[in-house]
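Model it.
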Amino acid sequence: MPQDTSNRKLCKHTQDAQALLVTPTRGMAYIHGTSTKMTFCIDNAQHPLIIDSGAHCSMVARKYLDKHYPNWEKKLLQTKEKNFKSALGEMTSIGTIIKEIIIPHRNGNFRLNPELVLLEDADIQRLLLGTDYQRIYGIDIYNNKNRHITIGTNKERNFHFIYTIYLTKVL
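Modeled.
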């Protein structure tokens, strides 16, 4: 059911959200940030994968494919050239590529077949699974104490993130 955001109900019945972690000292909230990095398998080799809820499409960089899959050009699907914007600047797509990826789990792996936008000039060192295929496969991200994702309708099978915390000293 859609939320009613009309002015008459907007600020009534408000309650405080319960913090799942200890609230950090003011100015230090960034230390609780972690990545949504996982491991996936392509052609029996493990690689890093980012479940990126801020990316509207799944993508991979040409440099990444050149390094790990030298014959990728044979599988390139031509598409209309499109420019993408990111925090790092503008990037140009040169087509798409469909690559089977396996997300490992001790109780049985999941196979995904995303169509990845191939970026010519991006400096991305991993595959990004954007909201396009998160929606197609029903991938839900849980940011509770035990951060994980679920895939499809089976909410009992959890795939946990690789915890990487980046600490930056503020001067």
